[in-house]
Amino acid sequence: MSDHHDAPSLSEIAALIGDPARANMLAALMGGQALTASELALIAGVAASTASSHLGKLLAGGLLAQEAQGRHRYFRLKSPAVAQALEAIMALAGEAPKPKRLPGPRDADMRRARTCYDHIAGELGVKLTDALLAQGHMARADKDFIVTPQGEAFFGSLGLDLAPLKSERRGLARVCLDWSERRPHLAGALGAALARHCLDAGWLAQDRKGRSLSVTRSGRAAFEKYFAFTP
Question: What's the rounded Cα separation, in Å, for the pair 48 and 54?
């Protein structure tokens, strides 16, 4: 790795992600949850000592963060930017890495609706983004979406205050390339806030063991009312 005062180079980041075991670990953390070293070792199909070495490299490379709770150490993605980069790489590769054993939903469920770190991805995320664009609430601008004045009023009607979201360093409305749909979905602070709203309002339900999302009965009515499509 380069000096700890410098950010890792492109080649160093690519090498970290390119290892199959590490790629499976990173993919398992894409849902935003934290996992233990033993859980990640099982997912990657490697021994505990090997997993520890991989995790050390990912921590040093700035891709993971570590938290201690009691006797356990939990690992999570360092930031939404890491998740966004992984999602873009998955889009280029055509699919997510295939872990040897990862409890969770079937691929069809993941493609339909899932979390991408902390925002909505999959077919649902892309349709939601398309609806916001079609309704004039957002406009596309390179790596970001622009929230229109009409959009600010719309999100305000949902109870989302954009003022504090605009001050977040991650950006308000980022473009994130969806690996399964190969089209953009909404990320950034607004994407995260909208996902939280959908979950808190009971429009979406999160799979307990994985990243997949399911639309509830009230959610179908809400998506039709506010976004003009039925999931």
Answer: 10
Comparing CA positions, the residue from 208, 210, 186 lying closest to residue 197 is: 186
Task: Name 115's bridge partners.
Answer: 120
Tens-digit pLDDT profile for residues 15-28? 999 899 999 999 88
SS3 88: helix
**pTM summary value:** 0.67
Q: Is 26 left (phi over 0), alpha (psi -120 to 50) or beta?
A: alpha
Comparing CA positions, the residue from 228, 215, 217, 204 lying closest to residue 154 is: 228
Structure tokens at 14: 């690519």
- One-letter amino acid at 53 equals S
Q: Could you tell me which of 193, 209, 210 has the C-alpha nearest to residue 201? A: 193
- B/e letters for 138-160, b = 16+ CB within 10 Å, e = fewer, are beeeeebbebbeebbebbeeeeb
